[in-house]
Structures are given as C-alpha cells and as structure tokens.
Amino acid sequence: MPSLSPVIAEIRLAVRTALADLPEGSTVVVALSGGADSLALAAATAFEGAKLGVRVRSVTVDHGLQADSDAVATRAASTATALGLEAGIVRVEVGGEGGPEAAARDARYRVLKGAAADAGATAVLLGHTLDDQAETVLLGLARGSGAASLQGMAPVREDDDGVRWVRPLLGVRRATTRAFCAASDLEFWDDPHNSEERFARVRVRDRVLPVLESELGPGIAEALVRTAEQLREDAEAFDEMIHETIEDIVEHAEAGISVSVAALAANPAALRNRIIRLVVDSEFGVSLTRLQTLEVARLVTDWSGQGPIDLPECSAARQGGRIVFTAR
C-alpha cells in the first residue's frame, strides 16, 4: 500500500487531537470558505469524524462581496458533500460598520453560531493556521494593545453563549494546508482579497513577515506563536488570581459597582489594572484602553481630589475608600 502523505498525516493528527475530548455522537460544524485552509480542515474532519463517531456538518457563508461569490460557495459546498459531509450555504448582507473585514467577520460568526445552535453542535471548527496566528500577534503588537492581543487566537474558546470555538490547525503552516489539498486532489479557491494590500493583514503577510525572516533568520512565525502561547499561559494565571481577589473587594453600588481603594493599592500595577479592566468589562460590557485604565488607577495611587472620570458607558469616581463605577 502507498504510504500516507506526511502533510495529510499532520493535518489529520491535528484534527484528531482536537476532536479527542468530544463524546461519541457529538456534532461539529466546520466553517468552510473553499480556501485551502478550511478545505483541508473539512477533509480531515470528515475522515477523523467518521472514525470517532462524530457527525460533521460544513457551513459556507456567502458574503456577497465578490461577483462570483455564489459560485465559490456552491463549489465549496459540493466539495464538502463529495467528502461525505452535510453541507449548507448561508448568504448574508455585509454592512460597512468597522470596515469590510470586521463586518464580514461579524456576519460570519453570527451565521456559524446560529448553525451550531440549529445542529446541536458541540463545537465550531475554524481553519486558522500558524501563519494566521503569527500575523495576528504582529498586528496586536503594532496596535500597542497589550498582552491581551499578543496572545493571538485561542486554540479553544467558549463564548458567553456556550459556543465552543476550536482551531485545530494553529500549529500547522499555511503551506501545509495547500500541500494537503494537492495531495488529496482537492481544488481550492484563492480569495482575491488575500492579495489586496489595502488590508493590513495582507501587508503583514506579504511584506512584514518576509522582511523579518530575511533580516532575522527563519522561524519568525513559529517564534511569534510561541510568544502568544506563553502570554496566554500567563494571562490564564493572572485571571485566576483576579477572580479570587475580586470576590473580596467588589461590592454592588447604586447604578453600578465599587472596588476597595485599599485592596487595589495593595496589588501590583499589573493586577490592579487588570482588575479595573475586568470590573468595567463585566459590569458595563466595554473594554478600557490603557490610557483610560491608568487614569482610573490614578484615583488609587495619585489621589489629589480629582473629579469623576468619563469612561465608555460609565464614569469612575473616588468616594471615601472606594472607587465607584456608575452607569452613564
């Protein structure tokens, strides 16, 4: 018998590992665009799912952003059917708020979440690769938005609605998914948006990473991903400490919530700032910038009688021995 292609074996193993914790009889949804990454994921999940007793359904979201998007979606769904998957296509209208990339992503995730609910799926599988992760980390670094964005994408994340988002291919290079498709005789689609340099991610992919590889040596993408993994481990440890701390120092206040000044002052800056961000996010559903967080922290560390600080959806003020966050 001919030996199994190494690229097929690598991706099947990644998927098998991701599915291993699911109970037999589970259903998963695979997000399938028709590109090499999602097609390799769908094919490997079809193979491994059949062995593990996992039902697999693919969902292709037609954003309608290109003239032939309906044909691309139909071809992707047909390929999924040929692989033995239940395949569905959902067409959406993409608004312009936040730019086309963000609007398309929001529409896509809404569809996938709905598809998971309809199918009773245990998880939604996404085809992001190691290269996507490295690009995400670099973009986060450029924004200066701290360790949260430098953690990149989590391999497994459960959202507030209980939907489990799984990225089995975060340890796999993009070139490997293309080689998988070639070895499997699967024709994939190259999204022309992936070549449009008006998008920051494309510039990182085509210009920034190649320059870093050329000037600093190979392995930059892998190093960025290792950094993200280490930061995620640190963040998980911090989060556990914060949740334990918050139980003792937070109290509900009229139209808001309050935090003990003494307790905040007793914590190092890293924990203090995380507590402030978490309290505001949990109570008001907004994320503070670093500058906003530091201004609130000054109510603790550099108090000189300053008045309330306006924040998104709320205000922060020092009242006696507490920092009170009140809805606006």
Task: Give a structural overview.
- By secondary structure, the chain is α/β, with parallel strands linked by helices.
- It folds into 2 domains: 6-216, HUPs (Rossmann fold); 254-327, Uridine Diphospho-n-acetylenolpyruvylglucosamine Reductase, domain 3 (2-Layer Sandwich), CATH 3.30.465.60.
- Helices cover 53% and strands 16% of the residues.
- It has 12 helices and 11 strands.
- The protein has helices at residues 6-19, 36-52, 69-82, 100-119, 130-143, 147-150, 174-183, 200-216, 220-249, 261-266, 269-284, 290-301; strands at residues 27-31, 55-62, 86-91, 123-125, 156-158, 164-166, 250-253, 256-260, 309-311, 314-319, 322-327.
- The chain has a 6-stranded mixed sheet with strand order 3-2-1-4-6-5, with helices on both faces.
- The mean pLDDT is 90.
- Residues 260-323 form the tRNA(Ile)-lysidine synthase substrate-binding domain.
Question: What are the salient characteristics of this protein?
Answer:
328 residues; alpha/beta; Rossmann fold; Uridine Diphospho-n-acetylenolpyruvylglucosamine Reductase, domain 3; 2 domains; 6-stranded mixed β-sheet; elongated
Which strand-content bin applies to the residues? 15-25%
Number of β-strand runs:
11
Taken together, the total number of domains comes to 2
CATH superfamily of the largest domain: HUPs
What general outline do the C-alpha atoms trace?
A: elongated
GO molecular function: tRNA(Ile)-lysidine synthase activity
Organism: Microbacterium phyllosphaerae
Subcellular location: Cytoplasm
EC number: 6.3.4.19
